[in-house]
């Protein structure tokens, strides 16, 4: 059954939220804390090893109540069931959206076109496990009999960002294998990576859901040519494996069927790290850790599916985006992890969030008359404090920010960790409180009156900047799985409320098609395709100076 399609702005809840917004939009967070001493407890959700404090958001009980009414009026509960049960909710591509099935338990049953997909999921997991064990233990050898030392993941978008982010984030858990990622069609990218590799000890994992992506196929071909410069053709079987739904094209590329790790079309590229796309993750941290990542995601799935909205982390988090995006007219959200390990987390989320919800047509095919997808960005703290935090504190834009941190560090240097976390807590406090005139004057106690007059406007600031504090016990494969799944479900809820299809990405296709035409023009003596004069001149200049 299809998802309901209702313009959210036509609901009763939306008008109520609008009226409520006019009443509380200028209320300061400090005031809200003053009037309710229990605010922090009431607006914190403690679940498993997650402590999520929503209290520094510009909301009251009434705000949440109205946002839940909106979710109910738009039948969110029913949509969640359809999502997990394999309904064709990706209607524009005619597919189910079932990355959640990839982390299900063995006894679960999830049907697509009448077939339970879980046994197939476990078959592929078994193949990932066996291959991982063989490579890690050294029983899978290179053609010349050497053990594998290096893994190169060749893929782009969802076939790169998820595995790259997870491997980087979980580097503490890594085994002896060195892992590299080649994504850009920029030839310098792959050449910088292969220049230091020994083909006899390297395994290449070509990852492409469609196996038609220009970047990945070009990189795979060039890397295979580089490999064959020093190795015999028969060696390809020991050194190249592939992950794809398009088994025929992979075979045509020259990879034996036994070296193909299949995936299904009901797994969206940007949600695919849980599938065989995660092979590089499994190789890098070992299969058991990969399994823990899946377990964490599954636990978050259960939390999301079964918790009341009042205690549901992804639901509250998504509704807050609606609140800021559609009522405060905030254009972006920042995600700031207080751990260097999550260096690539915001980049990873950019695809998940912006490729999914960057849509302007609703599920009925009509142009939307309200804002949808937010811009997402971020960098780890404390580095980002010394880069762009000034704008969040004193700029003209409202930027709701997620702070993510861990109670315990991994290497255990408590002195550093206390410093790191004191910065996390201090930033959320500073963003909320700002600096009053009295505080500035106290700070300027020794200054002359003229200096005080001059500096006061610059030094005082309003605060009232919303933040959500996510505090997790420790960064483990399981907790990372929960965190990623939390954002996946947040994306889903946003799409339901905005009445858009979150699981297609037609906008990306046009550029790919035009690039093909232009490549043709770059390769021929005259320009055959029609272009505007700007593009035409760029092509000519490039060709003439090449
Ligand atoms: O950028 C568009 C896109 O289709 C993404 O959605 C996808 O993750 C990426 O390209 C790579 O696609 P594939 O895995 O088919 O090579």
Q: Helical amount among residues, as a percent range?
A: 40-55%
Number of DSSP helical runs: 22
CATH architectural type of the largest domain: 3-Layer(aba) Sandwich
Whole-number average pLDDT? 97
Structural class: alpha/beta
The percentage of residues in β strands lies in 5-15%
Mass-distribution shape: globular
* Ligand inventory: 6-O-phosphono-beta-D-fructofuranose
Q: What is the CATH first-level class name of the largest domain? A: Alpha Beta
Unreliable residue stretches: none
Number of domains: 3
* CATH homology superfamily name of the largest domain: Glucose-6-phosphate isomerase like protein, domain 1
* Alpha-carbon Rg, integer: 25 Å
Strand order of the largest sheet: 1-2-13-12-10-11
Topology-level CATH name of the largest domain? Rossmann fold
Beginning-to-end CA distance, first to last residue: 55 Å
Largest sheet: 6 strands, mixed
Name a few traits of the molecule:
546 residues, 3 domains, SIS_dom_sf, 5-stranded parallel beta sheet, Rossmann fold, 48% helix, binds 6-O-phosphono-beta-D-fructofuranose, 6-stranded mixed beta sheet, Phosphoglucose isomerase, C-terminal domain, single chain, alpha/beta
Provide structural commentary:
- Pathway: Carbohydrate degradation; glycolysis; D-glyceraldehyde 3-phosphate and glycerone phosphate from D-glucose: step 2/4; Carbohydrate biosynthesis; gluconeogenesis.
- InterPro entries: G6P_Isomerase, G6P_Isomerase_C, Phosphoglucose_isomerase_CS, SIS_dom_sf, SIS_PGI_1, SIS_PGI_2.
- Belongs to the GPI family.
- The protein has helices at 12-24, 29-35, 39-42, 61-73, 76-85, 118-137, 161-169, 187-194, 214-228, 236-239, 247-253, 279-285, 287-306, 313-327, 345-357, 389-394, 414-433, 437-443, 449-459, 477-498, 506-523, 533-544; strands at 44-47, 50-53, 111-112, 115-116, 150-154, 178-182, 202-207, 240-244, 260-262, 332-337, 375-377, 401-408, 467-474.
- By secondary structure, the protein is an alpha/beta fold.
- It has three domains: 8-73 and 307-433 and 466-504, 3-Layer(aba) Sandwich (Rossmann fold); 115-290, Glucose-6-phosphate isomerase like protein, domain 1 (Rossmann fold); 507-544, Phosphoglucose isomerase, C-terminal domain, CATH 1.10.1390.
- The protein has a six-stranded mixed sheet, with helices on both faces.
- Strand 8 (240-244), helix 11 (247-253) and strand 9 form a beta-alpha-beta unit.
- Helix 14 (313-327) crosses helix 20 (477-498) and helix 15 packs parallel to helix 20.
- The model has no long low-confidence stretch (mean pLDDT 97).
- 6-O-phosphono-beta-D-fructofuranose is lined by residues 156-159, 208-210, 213, 216, 269-270, 355, 505, 508.
